[in-house]
Design a protein that fits this description.
Number of domains: 2
Radius of gyration: 30 Å
Strand content: 5-15%
Helix content: 55-70%
């Protein structure tokens, strides 16, 4: 690699990381805060929560990386153009490939990296997160750790405790069970405890109120009563894996007996091709960025910042590809569209690069945008229109 190519790649990588890390941190923080209830509801330690937060991070990289790459390339090339570096490179007789070649290579390398992330690392992390959450919520005693507050254990089943005691003891139990549409049950107990195996909640000195569909209420007092938790504990302790949680090997050869696959086979088909097609985004977005910003241009030509235009085009490709994925869940005919969108964008961009041309918006559109910006500027600064 030549000195100039190393210089360009170094600047792009620096700007790429500058854009990637803050955006990744912001999105990661929002995702982590959505799971803060793992600590408040299930009594997990801060260490366990941080492990969970760390496992979430790889699942975000593949989405943020292509757009950070767009920002890195466009900002670097725009700055080089403003500093007349691109003009100097052209004046020196250097071919345009001296800029294109290292950046396209970088895009290919990041596409391979993205394929590894979405194909192997991301599903493994998703499975670990689901297993960790399922394990944390499997124990009823853990899910009602917060005292004097109703907790929904599952739809139709609510539990409240007044006080937790040493070991697995509880005081002041209230359970509202409306899972059976034929009757509503409310349990009161002075104290109780969850058995070691988590299969039953043994309540002492209480009563149960049963309300029939016709409105009749029956009250039964008890000295000891065992509330069955076996099905509940088994269900809550077992993680359910969807298409996004499966590794690439499973998607290529799914188990026909898998319950989730039998229920929604289209999701697995669409997910497989989403992973393969989305791996093309870094290379395709590099090509789009080079078409918009890869040559020297006069400052007077700039109507819209190149980064804005490139991001709009990249978002358009990304949105259409994801829309095709959602359609492919219902119809296999849209699988080809998942590949056609990024490949078509890449081919068109490559043709523009080979012809050494830059796409231009229609004249009426650029003039309309220019007038809109001029009007906006005049409203902000009335004296701007009288400047000489």
């Amino acid at each position: 690699m030549k000195i100039l190519e190393k210089y360009i790649v170094k600047r792009v990588l620096l700007m790429f990381l500058t854009a990637l890390l803050p955006v990744l941190a912001i999105i990661w923080t929002t995702q982590v805060l959505q799971r803060i209830n793992l600590v408040t509801d299930s009594g997990q330690s801060v260490g366990s929560f941080m492990i969970l937060a760390t496992m979430i991070l790889p699942t975000l990289v593949s989405t943020v990386l292509p757009f950070a790459l767009v920002i890195g390339v466009t900002q670097t090339l725009t700055t080089m153009n403003n500093d007349s570096e691109l003009a100097v490179i052209d004046a020196a007789g250097a071919p345009r490939s001296i800029i294109n070649r290292p950046l396209i290579t970088l895009g290919v390398v990041l596409s391979v990296f993205t394929f590894g992330m979405v194909g192997f690392v991301e599903p493994a992390m998703r499975v670990s997160v689901r297993d960790m959450i399922a394990t944390a919520y499997a124990d009823l005693l853990s899910s009602v750790i917060e005292e004097r507050s109703f907790r929904q254990v599952e739809p139709g089943l609510y539990v409240q405790i007044t006080e937790r005691q040493a070991g697995r003891g509880l005081k002041g139990l209230l359970i509202a069970d409306s899972r059976d549409p034929e009757s509503e049950l409310i349990y009161y107990a002075r104290e109780g405890a969850v058995e070691e195996d988590g299969k039953a909640l043994v309540m002492q000195d209480g009563e149960v109120q049963r309300k029939a569909p016709n409105g009749d209420v029956t009250v039964i007092r008890f000295d000891s009563y065992a509330f069955d938790l076996s099905e509940l504990s088994e269900e809550r302790g077992q993680a359910r894996y969807g298409a996004k949680d499966r590794d690439l090997g499973f998607l290529l050869d799914p188990d026909p007996l898998d319950e989730q696959y039998r229920r929604k086979p289209g999701d697995y088909r669409a997910e497989l091709h989403r992973r393969l097609s989305s791996s093309l985004f870094p290379a395709v977005f590099i090509l789009i960025s080079l078409v918009i910003c890869g040559d020297a241009r006069s400052h007077r030509e700039a109507r819209l910042h190149p980064m804005a235009l490139t991001l709009v085009l990249a978002l358009g490709v990304f949105w259409m590809s994801n829309y095709a994925t959602s359609l492919a869940e219902d119809s296999a005919s849209f699988v080809l569209v998942q590949y056609a969108i990024p490949i078509s964008a890449g081919i068109i961009s490559f043709i523009f690069l080979r012809l050494n041309k830059r796409p231009q918006l229609p004249r009426f559109l650029t003039e309309g945008v220019a007038r809109a910006f001029a009007s906006m500027r005049k409203r902000i600064d009335p004296d701007a229109g009288h400047a000489t």
